[in-house]
C-alpha cells in the first residue's frame, strides 16, 4: 500500500496516542468481572455499590436473566465460559454445573459462620448460599369468600374436593419454583406418598403456569383463588394492595437458595475469590435481608414486611443433591402423569 | 451478489444445518465402560462390569439407555444389599477415557484410574451419560405421549383456525369487493389493525374479556343486576365453554383468528378483485339463480386465493408462539414445547427435535402454497373486464352489519387492553392510574426494552430493505449465472417456511458455538437484526421482485449500449421507480420487527431486551396489565409509523411517480 507523508505522520500519531492511552489505562486498571445472576434487576445496583465500597478496584459487569435462561446460557457456554462468577443463582442449577465440572471449589473466608444448610457439603465447597427462596400458598380472601372456600392450612387441605378448579401452580417442567414444590413433596411425603398427593392435587388444579410467580399474581388479580408460589412474591403483591393471605402449609415447605460460585478456568481467579469472600460477609447478608426473610448467616435476619410468620421453622431439610440427581426422572414422571392429560375435553 | 448469497447461507442455511445435527446428538448411559469392585472386609472381589451387573439384576435395559445430558444413574442401585452404614469399600473406574464418566462428590470423573470410596461416599456416586450420535432423541420423543400429542394439538388448532379465519375473511372481503356498502375504506383499515400488534396481545385481550374476572360479566352485572346474570354465567361456567375454558384451545383459536385475519383478508381481496365481469353477464343471461352463480363463478374464480390464504393462515397459526403461551393454559402445542424444552429444562437436543417436527407441516403448507400460486398466473386473461358491484339494499345492509361486527370485535379487543392498562388494580381497584406504565419495576419489563425495540426495528428496516432490494435486483435483472440465481431464489423463499422459534434456536446453536468466528455477534443487537431480517425475508423479497418485474428490461439494455455502469441506472432509474415498493418493504420490516416474539425470544441479551419480549415476560410473570400497556405502546408506535408512511408515500408518489400519469 502506498502511503504519503501525511499517512506516515498520521499513523505515527495514532500509535503514540494508543501507547499513551495504554500506559494511562494500566495505571488505573480495574479488574472487570463478568457476573451472571438471576437476582432481581432492582437489587443488582445496590449489591454492586456495597461491594465497591470495600473493593473499589473490581468492577462488576452484570449479565442478568431469569433462572432458567441463565442456567441454559451457562450450560450452553460450557466449553467456552463467558462468566467469571455466578452470584445469585438457584443452588439446584449450580449443582447441575458442579456435575459438569464447571465450578471452581473454593472455601471463602468466614465460611464457618454460615448455617451448614447454606453451603456445598464437600470440602472445599463448590458454592456458598446467600438467601433462601421459600414456597408458599397465596390465597385471595375476596375470591375465597365468594366461592365459600375455607382457608387451607396444609398441603393435604389443598386436595379436598372443595378446592376443585380453584388452585394454580407452576409447571415444574418450565419453572424452577414448580420443581422446588414437587421435589419438596417427594421429600415430605416420601416417593409413593408424594405422587399420591400430586395425583389428588392434580384433580383440583385449574391450570399450570410457566412461571413461578404467576400463580400468586393471578391469585392477587382474582384469576384464581389459590396460587402455589413463593413467599417473596406474595409479600410483594400484598404490599401492592392485593387481598392476599400468605399461607405456610404445616407439613413444611420446599425452598431453594440463591448461591454464589466461581466458574472453573476463569482468568481472574483472585478478583473472583474476593467477590465470593465478600458475598458471605455479614454486610452482604444484611443486604440480602432487604428482600429475603431467610439468609445464610443465622441470627441476623430481621423480619420482612408482609412475610408470613414461622417460615424459617417450616423450611424442610432440603436434600439438594437428591433434587439435582433425580431431576430428570422426576420431571419425566410428572410429565407422564399430568402433562399428557391436558388434551381438550370433548 | 456474492455478499447476499453469503448472507443467506450464514443467516439461514448453516444455522439450520447445525440445528438438524443437534437433534441427532444424543446422551446415553454407557454402563459397559464402567467397572466396579467391592471389598466386604475380605479384600477386593472380582472386577464387575456395570452393564453385565445391571442386566443380571434386571435394572438396566440395553435397549433403553437414551437419556438427556442431565440424566443420572445412582451407582448404589447395582448393589441391592447396599447400606451406607456398612463398612464395605467400593472401587469404581472408567475403562475408556472421554466417556461420560461418573460423579464423585458431585464432580465429574472421566479418567481411567480407580476411585476407592467408603460406602458413605459411594452413596453419592452417580453415573453420567455419554454423548453419541443417533436417532435416540426422536425415539424418545415419539414414545412420550406428553410430547407427541402436541403434534395432534397443533395440527387441530391450526386447521380449525384456518377454516374459521378463511370463512370470516372471505365474507369480509366479499363485502369489501362485491357490495356497495359505505365506509369501505374505514373497514379495510380497521381490519388491518391486528398486523400492528404482537399476536399475544390478542390473548391478553381475551383474558380480560372472558377470563375469570371477565369484563363482559362485569358489564352484564352492571347492566342487568348481579342476580339476573349469575345463573346464566354459572350455566356457562359449568358447560363446555365456561370462563376457565378461555385458557386452552378455544382461547387459542379465537386469538389466532384475530391475528391472522388481516393476512387472509389481503390475499382474498386480491383474489376477488380480479373477477371477470363477462362471466357474471353470461351467467345472468343464462338465468342462473344467485346461489348457483356464487357456487360456479365466484368461488372457482377465487379458489386459488382461498387455498393460498388457507395455507398462509395455517402456517402462521402452527408456528405462532405468543398466543398459546399466553392463553393456552395446559394445552400443549409444538411451538411452546420448544420453549419449555430449552428454557425450562435446558434440553437443547429435544428442543431441536421438536423444531424439526414443527418444520415438517410448515414446509408442506409452504410447498403446496407455492405450487398453487404458480398455477394462478394462468387464470388471468388479458381480455377480462373488471367486475363492478351493483347496489342492492338488503345485501349491502347485511354486509355492512357483518363488517361492523368484525370491526367492533377487533377494536374492542384493543380498547379492552388499553382500558386494562390504565386501571390501577383490576378488578379490586378500578381507579385510573398510569402505574402500569412504570415498566422499570415490573418483572421482565423496562422502558429500555421499548427504546431497544424501536432501534432494532429501525436497523432492521434499513439493513433489510437494502439487502432485500439488492438481492431481488440481482435475481431479476442479473444476466448469466442462471443456476446461481435459481439457487438464490430458493434461499430467498425458504425463510417463509421456517418457524421463528426454529430460526431462533438454530441461531443459538450456530452463533454461540465457541469455534464460530462470528461468535462475537451473539448477544448483541446485530444478531437480533440479522435474525429478524432473515425471518421476514421472503415477503419483502416477493414485493421487491414484483416491483422490479414491472420495469422493462429495455432500461438495462439502453444503459448498457450507452456504456453506463449498472450502478448508475440502479441509482438513477430503478430505485426511484421502485420507491413505493422500497418504502413498503421497509415499513413491513419495521412493523414486524416491533411485534416479533418467536424468533428473538432465545436471542435477546440483558442489554438488548425488546418490547415484544417484555410483553411476553411480563405476562409470564403475571403482570398482565403492564403487558397490555406495553403491547399498546407497540401498537401506537406502529400505527404512527404507518401513518407517516402513508403521508410519505403520497408525497413521493407526486414527485417520483409523475411519469405514470399523463
Q: Could you give a short description of this structure?
A:
The complex is a heterodimer of chains A (346) and B (662). Chain A is α/β, with parallel strands linked by helices and 346 residues long. In chain A, 43% of the residues lie in helices and 18% in strands.
CATH topology of the largest domain in chain A: D-Maltodextrin-Binding Protein, domain 2
Residue share in helices of chain B?
55-70%
Order of helices and strands of chain A: HEHEHEHEEHEHEHEHEEHHHH
Give helix % range of chain A: 40-55%
The CATH class of the largest domain in chain A, by name, is Alpha Beta
In DSSP terms (H or I, runs of 4 or more residues), the helix count of chain B works out at 26
- Cα-based radius of gyration of chain B, to the nearest Å: 30 Å
Q: What is the CATH class designation of the largest domain in chain B?
A: Mainly Alpha
Low-pLDDT stretches of chain B: none
Largest sheet of chain A: 10 strands, mixed
Structural class of chain A: alpha/beta
Structural class call of chain B reads alpha+beta
Record the SSE blueprint.
The complex is a heterodimer of chains A (346) and B (662).
Chain A: H1 5-27, E1 31-37, H2 41-54, E2 58-64, H3 67-76, E3 85-90, H4 91-99, E4 103-104, E5 128-140, H5 141-146, E6 167-170, H6 176-204, E7 205-209, H7 214-220, E8 226-230, H8 231-239, E9 244-247, E10 255-263, H9 269-279, H10 282-288, H11 311-314, H12 320-339
Parallel strand pairs in A: 1-2, 1-3, 6-7, 6-8
Antiparallel strand pairs in A: 3-10, 4-10, 5-8, 5-9, 5-10
Chain B: H1 2-23, E1 25-28, E2 34-39, E3 48-49, H2 50-57, E4 66-67, E5 73-74, E6 89-94, E7 102-104, E8 107-109, E9 115-118, H3 119-122, E10 126-127, E11 130-133, H4 136-142, H5 145-178, H6 184-192, H7 199-210, H8 215-224, H9 226-238, H10 249-273, H11 277-285, H12 290-319, H13 322-327, H14 334-344, H15 348-376, H16 393-422, E12 423-425, E13 429-432, H17 447-477, H18 482-493, H19 500-511, H20 525-535, H21 537-549, H22 554-561, H23 566-577, H24 579-595, H25 611-620, H26 624-656
Helix pairs in contact in B: 1-15, 1-19, 5-10, 5-12, 5-16, 7-10, 7-16, 7-26, 8-9, 10-12, 12-15, 14-15, 15-19, 16-26, 17-20, 17-21, 17-24, 17-25, 21-24, 24-26, 25-26
Amino acid at each position: 500500500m502506498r502511503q504519503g507523508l501525511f499517512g506516515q505522520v498520521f499513523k505515527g500519531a495514532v500509535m503514540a496516542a494508543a501507547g499513551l492511552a495504554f500506559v494511562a489505562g494500566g495505571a488505573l486498571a480495574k479488574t472487570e468481572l463478568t457476573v451472571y445472576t438471576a437476582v432481581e434487576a432492582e437489587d443488582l445496583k445496590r449489591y454492586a455499590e456495597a461491594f465497591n465500597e470495600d473493593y473499589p478496584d473490581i468492577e462488576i459487569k452484570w449479565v442478568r436473566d431469569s433462572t432458567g435462561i441463565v442456567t441454559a446460557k451457562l450450560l450452553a457456554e460450557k466449553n467456552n465460559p463467558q462468566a467469571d462468577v455466578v452470584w445469585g443463582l438457584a443452588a439446584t442449577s449450580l449443582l447441575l454445573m458442579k456435575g459438569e465440572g464447571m465450578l471452581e471449589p473454593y472455601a471463602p473466608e468466614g465460611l464457618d459462620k454460615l448455617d451448614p444448610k447454606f453451603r456445598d457439603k464437600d470440602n472445599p465447597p463448590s458454592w456458598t448460599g446467600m438467601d433462601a427462596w421459600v414456597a408458599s400458598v397465596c390465597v385471595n380472601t375476596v375470591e375465597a369468600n365468594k366461592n365459600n372456600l375455607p382457608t387451607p392450612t396444609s398441603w393435604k387441605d389443598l386436595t379436598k374436593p372443595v378446592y376443585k378448579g380453584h388452585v394454580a401452580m407452576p409447571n415444574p417442567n418450565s419453572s424452577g419454583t414448580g420443581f422446588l414444590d414437587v421435589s419438596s413433596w417427594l421429600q415430605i411425603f416420601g416417593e409413593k406418598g408424594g405422587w399420591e398427593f400430586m395425583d389428588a392435587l392434580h384433580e383440583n388444579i385449574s391450570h399450570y403456569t410457566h412461571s413461578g410467580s404467576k400463580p400468586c399474581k393471578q391469585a392477587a388479580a382474582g384469576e384464581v383463588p389459590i396460587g402455589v408460589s413463593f413467599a417473596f412474591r406474595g409479600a410483594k403483591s400484598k404490599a401492592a394492595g392485593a387481598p392476599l393471605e400468605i399461607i405456610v402449609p404445616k407439613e413444611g415447605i420446599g425452598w431453594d437458595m440463591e448461591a454464589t460460585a466461581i466458574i472453573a478456568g476463569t482468568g481472574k481467579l483472585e478478583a473472583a475469590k474476593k467477590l465470593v469472600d465478600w458475598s458471605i460477609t455479614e454486610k452482604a447478608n444484611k443486604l440480602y435481608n432487604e428482600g429475603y426473610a431467610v439468609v445464610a448467616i443465622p441470627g441476623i435476619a430481621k423480619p420482612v414486611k408482609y412475610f408470613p410468620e414461622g417460615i424459617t421453622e417450616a423450611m424442610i431439610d432440603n436434600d439438594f443433591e437428591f433434587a439435582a440427581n433425580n431431576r430428570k426422572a422426576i420431571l419425566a414422571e410428572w410429565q407422564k402423569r399430568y402433562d399428557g392429560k391436558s388434551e381438550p375435553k370433548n | 451478489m456474492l455478499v447476499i448469497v453469503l448472507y443467506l447461507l450464514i443467516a439461514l442455511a448453516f444455522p439450520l444445518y447445525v440445528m438438524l445435527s443437534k437433534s441427532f446428538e444424543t446422551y446415553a448411559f454407557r454402563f459397559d465402560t464402567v467397572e466396579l469392585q467391592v471389598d466386604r472386609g475380605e479384600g477386593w472381589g472380582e472386577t464387575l462390569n456395570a452393564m453385565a451387573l445391571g442386566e443380571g439384576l434386571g435394572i438396566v435395559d440395553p435397549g433403553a439407555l437414551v437419556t438427556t445430558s442431565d440424566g443420572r444413574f445412582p451407582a448404589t442401585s447395582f448393589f441391592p444389599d447396599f447400606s451406607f452404614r456398612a463398612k464395605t469399600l467400593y472401587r469404581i473406574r472408567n475403562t475408556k477415557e472421554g466417556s461420560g464418566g461418573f460423579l464423585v462428590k458431585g464432580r465429574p470423573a472421566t479418567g481411567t484410574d480407580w476411585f476407592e470410596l467408603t460406602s458413605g461416599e459411594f452413596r453419592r456416586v452417580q453415573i453420567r451419560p455419554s454423548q453419541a450420535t443417533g436417532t435416540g432423541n426422536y425415539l424418545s420423543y415419539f414414545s412420550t405421549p406428553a410430547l407427541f400429542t402436541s403434534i395432534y394439538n397443533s395440527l387441530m388448532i391450526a386447521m380449525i383456525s384456518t377454516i374459521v379465519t378463511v370463512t370470516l375473511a372471505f365474507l369480509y372481503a366479499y363485502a369489501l369487493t362485491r357490495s356497495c356498502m359505505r365506509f369501505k375504506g374505514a373497514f379495510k383499515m380497521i381490519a388491518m389493525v391486528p398486523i400492528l400488534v404482537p399476536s399475544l396481545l390478542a390473548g391478553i385481550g381475551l383474558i380480560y374479556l372472558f377470563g375469570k374476572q371477565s369484563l363482559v360479566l362485569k358489564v352484564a352485572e352492571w347492566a342487568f343486576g348481579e342476580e339476573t346474570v349469575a345463573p346464566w354465567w354459572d350455566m356457562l361456567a359449568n358447560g363446555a365453554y365456561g370462563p376457565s375454558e378461555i385458557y386452552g384451545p378455544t382461547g387459542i383459536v379465537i386469538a389466532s383468528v384475530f391475528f391472522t385475519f388481516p393476512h387472509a383478508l389481503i390475499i382474498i381481496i386480491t383474489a376477488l378483485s380480479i373477477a371477470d365481469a363477462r362471466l357474471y353477464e353470461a351467467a345472468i343471461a343464462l338465468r342462473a339463480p344467485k346461489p348457483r352463480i356464487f357456487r360456479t363463478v365466484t368461488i372457482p374464480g377465487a379458489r386459488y386465493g382461498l387455498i393460498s390464504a388457507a395455507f398462509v393462515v395455517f402456517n402462521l397459526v402452527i408456528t405462532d408462539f405468543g398466543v398459546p403461551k399466553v392463553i393456552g393454559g395446559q394445552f400443549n402445542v409444538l411451538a411452546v414445547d420448544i420453549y419449555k424444552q430449552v428454557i425450562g429444562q435446558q434440553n437443547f437436543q429435544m428442543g431441536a427435535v421438536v423444531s424439526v417436527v414443527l418444520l415438517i407441516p410448515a414446509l408442506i403448507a409452504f410447498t403446496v402454497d407455492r405450487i398453487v400460486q404458480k398455477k394462478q398466473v394462468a387464470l388471468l386473461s388479458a381480455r377480462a373486464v373488471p367486475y363492478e358491484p351493483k347496489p342492492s339494499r338488503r345485501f349491502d345492509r347485511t354486509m355492512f352489519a357483518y363488517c361492523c361486527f368484525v370491526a367492533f370485535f377487533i377494536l374492542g379487543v384493543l380498547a379492552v387492553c388499553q382500558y386494562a392498562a390504565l386501571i390501577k388494580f383490576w378488578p379490586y381497584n378500578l381507579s385510573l392510574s398510569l402505574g402500569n406504565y412504570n415498566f422499570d419495576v415490573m418483572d421482565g419489563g423496562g422502558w429500555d426494552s421499548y427504546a431497544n425495540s424501536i432501534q432494532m426495528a429501525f436497523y432492521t428496516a434499513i439493513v433489510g430493505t437494502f439487502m432485500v432490494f439488492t438481492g431481488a435486483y440481482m435475481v431479476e435483472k442479473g444476466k448469466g449465472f442462471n443456476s446461481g440465481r435459481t439457487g438464490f431464489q430458493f434461499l430467498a423463499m425458504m425463510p417463509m417456511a421456517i418457524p421463528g422459534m426454529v430460526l431462533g434456536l438454530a441461531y443459538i446453536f450456530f452463533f454461540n458455538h465457541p469455534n464460530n468466528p462470528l461468535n462475537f455477534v451473539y448477544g448483541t443487537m446485530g444478531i437480533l437484526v440479522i435474525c429478524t431480517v432473515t425471518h421476514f425475508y421472503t415477503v419483502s423479497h416477493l414485493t421487491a421482485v414484483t416491483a422490479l418485474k414491472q420495469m422493462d428490461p429495455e432500461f438495462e439494455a439502453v444503459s448498457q449500449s450507452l456504456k453506463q455502469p449498472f450502478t448508475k441506472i440502479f441509482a438513477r432509474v430503478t430505485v426511484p421507480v421502485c420507491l413505493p415498493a422500497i418504502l413498503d418493504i421497509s415499513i413491513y420490516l419495521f412493523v414486524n420487527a416491533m411485534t416479533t416474539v418467536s424468533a428473538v425470544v432465545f436471542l435477546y441479551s440483558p442489554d438488548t431486551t425488546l418490547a415484544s419480549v417484555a410483553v411476553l415476560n411480563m405476562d409470564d410473570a403475571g403482570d398482565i396489565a403492564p403487558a397490555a400497556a406495553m403491547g399498546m405502546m407497540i401498537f401506537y408506535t406502529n400505527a404512527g409509523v404507518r401513518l407517516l408512511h402513508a403521508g410519505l408515500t403520497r408525497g413521493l408518489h407526486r414527485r417520483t411517480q409523475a411519469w405514470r400519469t399523463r
